[in-house]
Amino acid sequence: MTALEEQSHEALATRAAERDLGAFAELYGRLAPGLLGMALRILPDHAAAAGIVEQAFVLFWNETRRFPRDGASVAAWLSLTARQIAVNTRRSRLRLPAVSGSKTSPLGDYAWLPHPEEIARIEERRELLRKVLHQLPKDQRDALELVVFEGLTEEELAARLGEPLGRVRSGLRASMRFLRHRLRAVLGTWSANI
Amino acid sequence: MVCQYLEDTFELYLLGALSRDDSASVESHLGTGCATCREQLRDAGLTVYLLCQPAKPARLNPKQKSHLFHRLREK
Q1: I need a labelling partner for B14 at 20 to 30 A (CA). Which of A9, A76, A81, A155 fits?
Q2: Chain A: residue nearest B67 by CA?
Q3: Interface check A20 vs B, CB under 8 A
Q4: What CATH number does residue A72 fall under?
Q5: What is the domain range of residue A149?
Q6: In contact, A38 and A67? CB cutoff 8 Å
Q7: Interatomic CA distance for residues A6 and A8, integer angstroms
Q8: Do A146 and A73 share a structural domain?
């Protein structure tokens, strides 16, 4: 049997579905520090952020048997799930409603999950991608941070910035379009002119 | 909303930043099984993953790991 350290996140998740705690501990060791770093951006209280990471891993433990066996990134699932829990915890403290789709959580099915190979390429090229983020004008970067790490909706962001909703909405969508196109370029070829 | 204009909404949909009406439009369209939009949703998943990554990971307290695995063993 291959050593746990040599297995992919997804292979470890498959073993976790068979209730292999050793494989799950390996997955935790790899991914929990990054998730905690993210949770601390959302909730600076260390105990609360650690609780978010724990909740995300418990959810994933419960989810492993249902989780797709091929082509779905475990790191992406854990990352966006932990972010959603953290954002909703923050919003609840501020007496704001939870963020979600109109009926259920957008993360509730697996259709959105990127391939593990694509996530691995993001990790390999993280420094380059950080430069891409900094190509956005500062006001657009700040607006994205408010959405991602404070969990503001488009309407809340417009109110926070004191700007018309239409302008805020167009700005956010333009930022996402820029990032999506640059990300495709970086993941598609090393020769992208970043 | 019309299909071709949905592309710029998928990241905000995954982040929960759309209004309820816009979220409902995205969900309703995805529910039709549109293959192009489902592919674009996966692209959006990549962008959102990138945006969520912290500048640096944080150190975990070993007690946090013990607490989690204690919970899992009890399940």
Answers
A1: A9
A2: A54
A3: no
A4: 1.10.1740.10
A5: 125-194
A6: no
A7: 7
A8: no
Distance in angstroms (rounded) separating the CA atoms of residues B26 and A153:
16
CATH number for the domain harbouring residue A146: 1.10.10.10
Total number of domains constituting chain B = 1
Residues of A in contact with B67 (CB under 8 A): 54
pLDDT per residue over A36-61, tens digit each?
999 999 999 999 999 999 999 999 99
Size of interface A-B (CB pairs under 8 A): 167
Q: Exposed e or buried b for every residue in A49-67, given b needs 16+ CB within 10 A?
A: bbbbbbbbbeebbebbeeb
Residue B17 belongs to what domain range?
3-74
Say whether residue A61 is in contact with chain B using an 8 A CB cutoff. yes
A168 shares contact with chain B (CB less than 8 Å): no
B20 and A24: CB-CB below 8 Å? no
The interface predicted TM-score (ipTM) is 0.92
- Within a domain: residue A29? yes
B4-62: pLDDT as tens digits: 778 889 999 999 999 988 998 898 898 888 889 989 999 999 999 999 998 889 999 99
